Amino acid sequence: MKELKTFPKGGVHPRDHKELTNSIPIRNAPVPSVAVIAMGQHLGSPAKCLVEKGDTVTEGMLIGESSGFISANVHSSIPGKVSKIDRVFLPNGLNSEAIFVELEGEFERSGKEVTRTEWREKTPQELLEMVKEKGIVGMGGATFPTHVKYTVKKGMRVEYFVVNGVECEPYLTADHRLMLEKTDEILEGIEIIRKILNPEKIMIGIEINKPDAIEIMERRIGERGLDFHVIPLKMKYPQGDEKQLLKALTGREVPSGGLPLDIGAVVSNVGTVFSIYEAVVHGKPLIERIVTVTGGAINHPANLKVRIGTRIGDLIDECGGFKETPLKIIAGGPMMGFAQVNLDSPVTKGVSGIIALPREEVKIPRKTPCIQCGKCIRVCPMGLSPTRLYKWIDHQHYEEAVKEGLMDCKECGCCGYVCPAGIPLVQGMRVGKYYARKKKV
Ligand code: SF4
Ligand code: SF4
């Protein structure tokens, strides 16, 4: 048998816990009575609020306008009345202006017959404009505005368009279920993106712990007569990181501080591709996403289709609440996600999972001095020395840390995961980057 592809340097193999939800079909979460829709839920400048308290909004209406080159439109996920505009904490810990919409009135889209846009007659520029207009951002967690990613400078050529179906974070199965349940829609989404980017080759990377997704993708590609290549990948975290995925699939390395386009590639997550399909074919803005609600402390783990702005606590209630008091609640995956203290935080476009972990599923190492074991160096996929970087940061020598590659750190968490001394290496990297940027090192 041919050896499966993967990235060559570092990485870890955490237990995946995906069996909790990977065979449960996606179902709709209840419509929230109040949707809290953040203006700063994407990378770049927050959207400019277009409504005032007391305004009536419709489902899918533009309520926040892209405010800069790197920014994205925001739409109302429910019909209703704007009851207030206030600042809220988001699941990633950032504070943002948000519009509170109280449910009221008729749904413009939901439950209505869907119409199809004949997108094949549109130009690449028109399709790109639709992606921008509908507020599409990277849904693997990065939330980078997709229309910016797909704007290829003159003279640059896209050799590879890569669909990221890796979902290597433990517990998460939202992308897996989407590939099984929306295969044809994802494939049509890829055809739309092909028209925008005109790449030479299209690859779909999926780890082999999702054999049913690999099978159905390959079968439907064959039945539809498409020339997309499904590439099964060895399981290894953080393969879903676009730099690692590109290394695994193309053998090419994105240069330090560079972008995938520097090696002729563009990468999009399957969730993003599905949203592009919905935006272009059905004119639907990004007002919903799939969220995996799981972990040993949740009564009935599930994959839910959630309106943006729904409270995290409401999703937990929808899954039967807690069967025991969780020690930790995380938004996103357990390796790169954010610990939650407030269940009132709203779901944003980048929230792929809510994970409630009981005591036995949380590793609580006792912090001791570094024992120089070198494990963190061996697992770092970026080839960094986390122990040295941590020391520089701990002594506030940010310049030295930057010289040794701090800004290349992907915050993947591999180093902290293996450290026997319980040193909070990733938190250290985040702090170091924050101060390095602040001090313009
Ligand atoms: S968090 Fe940063 S330093 Fe640690 S393993 Fe990942 S890339 Fe390397
Ligand atoms: S893994 Fe932890 S103990 Fe080992 S060298 Fe790295 S920081 Fe030190």
Could you please describe the fold and organization of this structure?
With 441 residues, the protein is of the alpha/beta class. Among the domains are: 168 residues, NADH-ubiquinone oxidoreductase 51kDa subunit (Rossmann fold), CATH 3.40.50.11540; 64 residues, no CATH class. The protein contains 13 helices and 17 strands. Strands 1-14-13-17-15-16 form a six-stranded mixed sheet, sandwiched between helices. Strand 15 and strand 16 form a beta hairpin. Helix 3 packs parallel to helix 5. The chain is globular and about 65 Å long. The N and C termini lie far apart (49 Å). One iron/sulfur cluster (SF4) binds next to helix 9.
Helix content: 25-40%
CATH class category name of the domain at 115-282: Alpha Beta
Total helical elements = 13
Radius of gyration: 21 Å
> What string gives the helices and strands in order?
EEEEEEEEHHEHHEHEHEHEEHEEEHHHHH
What small molecules are bound in this structure? Answer: iron/sulfur cluster
Query: What is the straight-line distance between the termini?
Result: 49 Å
Shape: globular
The unreliable regions are none
The number of strands is 17
How would a textbook summarize the main sheet?
A: 6 strands, mixed
Structural class: alpha/beta
CATH level-3 fold name of the domain at 115-282: Rossmann fold
**CATH fourth-tier homologous superfamily of the domain at 115-282:** NADH-ubiquinone oxidoreductase 51kDa subunit
Strand arrangement across the biggest beta sheet? 1-14-13-17-15-16
CATH architecture of the domain at 115-282: 3-Layer(aba) Sandwich
Mean pLDDT: 96
Percentage of residues in DSSP E strands? 15-25%
